[in-house]
Amino acid sequence: MRTPLLAAVLAVLAAAPAPAARHDAEKLPVTRIRDLHYGDALFYFYQDEEFEALTRLLAYEHWNRVPHHLDEAQLLEGGLYLSLGMHNEAGERFARLLTDEVPTGVRNRAWFYLAQVWYARGYLEKADAALRKVNGRMSPELEAQKELLFGNVLMHEGRYDEAIRMLSLWRDPEGGRRIWSGYARFNLGVALVRNGRLADADPFLTAVGSMIATTPELLALKDRASLALGFAYLQANQPARARSALARVRLNGPYSNKALLGTGWADAALGDYQGALTPWMELRSRDLLDAAVQESYLAIPYAFAKLNANAQSAEYYESAVNSFDAESGRIDAAIARIRNGDMLRRVLTSEQGARYGWFWQLKNLPDAPESRYLYAVLAGHDFQEGLKNYRDLLFLNGALGRWDESMAAFEDMIETRERAYAERLPRADALLTSGAVQKLQQRNTALANELRGIETGGDMSALGTAAEREQWARVRRVEAALAGAPETPAYADLRARLALVRGVLQFGLNDAFKARLWQEHRALKDLNLALHEAQSRWIRVERDRRNVPTNTGEFAARVTSLKQRIDALQTRLAGAEHKQGEFLARVAAHQLEEQKDRLATYQVQARFALATMYDRAANAQGARTPAPVSPAGETPPAPEAMPEPEAPPATEPPPATEPPPAPEAPPAPEAPPAHEETPAPKAQEPPR
User: Fold this and answer.
1) Which of 76, 299, 360, 672 is the most exposed place for a label (fewest CB within 10 A)?
2) Nearest to 610 by CA among 325, 311, 326, 327
């Protein structure tokens, strides 16, 4: 999945000029690809192979293969570092590269998206600093998102007054997504609650909790707002208002368990214990792994005790003890499997198409007995970040393994080259000592002199065909024989016939002489070129004869050095992978141990409450048995605190040549009111 920031910074990579139009202030000017190696890196980038693209870019920079695109290459590297989760490296590069020479809109967009990533990673100070680098206003959609993000950063830093002022001035951009307005009002309401202004927060949270929602995201936001408002009123001892807010939460939503628990405590605070049993009984039928369900196992007998239904109360306390005990045993077995098994590899194997990249999220769990206990921990931010690191370590280990195989192939290539050199060396030495090229050059010189003599002397027969040269030689021999013959009529006739033959033959030779002379000059010129090429190759052979052993040794030394580095890195990666696996296993086991400890606490409280009931019944001496006191005394325990909401997933942007749109999911809203988690109800001391 590619980040929106990559789409923003890579507008510079367009390979052709844009048509005549007004330039987008939030995009870099277009440019042409002038270095082949830069285009090679872009090929892998557009194939979503960010790691390969980054590796090649760094190598090409090292060998100075992208001189015309050095700035663009480093900007692309920053985006790739960001996509791979190396946010500090990306931030340093952007701080160095996003100078005044880069258009203001591009700088603002880059700093905004970098602030989003730092906020999601928990680097609040860096996110604050990045947002303050945004100079001027961006497009209405991005400006609205920036203010929401800034408000979240301020709230996480505890600066609620500043967050309230900023969110109070927030305006929904024209044509913007409806969810932004919901998040803005929700965050403003939460900030007011945390600032102790519950009455001012009510209208905002009520508006969000009552809005018309058609998407799962809006429905979840509605439930979260109603739950936050309800728990805030419970904390403020206003159960009637809390109940009306909690009643808006859906029964099948992700917050239904806490809403049912809170509704029951609101009824109990109003004295309606019969009414409190309705949501608590519904809650009791749900998964015991949920903390709210576990608390309902104690709340139900507490309500029965308040209704003087002591038999039902004792029955439910005994059932709670047995349920807690059985679940504790299953958790022990799950912890043992986590510590002794390869949970992480099964987790990654269950995620089809899992690959490197910071924006990857775990969505599927392996089919294992312990998986049912790990939904909460695997969905947690800390575990997800640690799992990404573990997955990246596995990927890097695989990449180093492939490179190590390449080193073995290079060693084989060098060995083959050395063997071939040893086999060809005797023939090369024999050729070099033969002086073949010098002999050919001497022969060429002789041929050139001979041709020059033929041209100067007009020796037409020398360029004739073999038949013509033979005929010309016979004519000359006959002429020589007839030269000493007597002057008789017979010899005179022979001389006349010979003159005719000689004239015909000479005419043919003379007619073809110039053409044949040109052809010979052309052949001699081609021969000179061939001799020049032979001389060049001869020189290269002599040079390679001296240099090949040195080059081969240099290559072998480089390959050996690289192989040693790869081996060392593999050792380090193996150690880091082992430690990261142990850390994640400890995180998962710790989560289960916390669940077990909570169950143990609830179990002790149930046992103590049950013992208290039996003790009072035994000491009643026939009097009417009073209603047993709840494990927490007459005051019902405060509901558990709302968990911190998780950041919505980042969305995938369009291709890099398009302006990056607003991310589909907003920055993570602040958590609902800051209730301190109230411990489970404590049992009373036994009467003395």
Assistant:
1) 360
2) 311
Banded pLDDT at 610 (limits 50, 70, 90): confident
- Is 0.85 surpassed by the pTM of this model? no
Determine the Cα–Cα distance for residues 531 and 240; give it in Å rounded to an integer: 106
Burial 130-153 (b: 16+ CB within 10 A, else e): bbebbeeebbebbbbbbbbbbbbb
Separation between Cα atoms, residue 118 and residue 156, nearest integer Å: 13
Query: Which residues 6+ apart lie within 8 Å of 543 measured at CB?
Result: none
Q: What is the pLDDT of residues 521-569, one digit of tens each?
A: 898 888 889 888 888 888 887 787 777 666 677 788 888 888 899 999 9
Task: Please give the pLDDT value at position 365.
Answer: 61
If you ran DSSP here, which 8-state letter would residue 458 be given?
Answer: T
pLDDT in tens, 255-279: 999 999 999 999 999 999 999 999 9
> What's the Rg (C-alpha) of the chain?
45
- For residues 486 and 492, what is the distance between their CA atoms, to the nearest angstrom? 9
Q: Burial letters for 46-85: b for 16+ Cβ neighbours within 10 Å, e otherwise?
A: eeeebbbbbbbbeebbeeebbeebeebbbbbbbbbbbbbb
Contact, 186 vs 672, CB < 8 A? Answer: no
d(C-alpha 359, C-alpha 650), whole Å: 7
Helices and strands per DSSP (H, E), number in the chain: 23, 0
pLDDT digits (tens, 9 = 90+) for 28-56: 555 678 889 988 988 988 888 888 899 99
Q: Is the dihedral of CA 344, 347, 353, 359 positive or negative?
A: negative
Answer whether residue 230 shows pLDDT above 90: yes
Q: Following DSSP, what letter does each residue of 339-406 receive, concatenated? A: HHS-HHHHHHHHSTT--S-TT-------SSGGGGG-HHHHHSHHHHHHHHHHHHHHHHHHHHHHHHHH
512: its two tokens: 């073809």
Cα gap 472→240, rounded to integer Å:
134
Q: Is 158 left (phi over 0), alpha (psi -120 to 50) or beta?
A: left
Token pair of 298 as six digits: 């104690």
* DSSP-assigned letter for residue 86: -
Question: What type of residue is 588?
Answer: A
CA pair distance 78, 45, nearest whole angstrom: 13
Contact 670, 155 (CB under 8 A): yes
Question: What distance in Å separates the CA atoms of residue 41 and residue 62, rounded to the nearest whole number?
Answer: 14
**C-alpha to C-alpha distance for 76 and 84, rounded to whole angstroms:** 12
Between CA 371 and CA 289 the distance in angstroms is 12
The CA distance from 79 to 9, in Å, is: 7
Structure-block tokens of residue 524: 């001699």
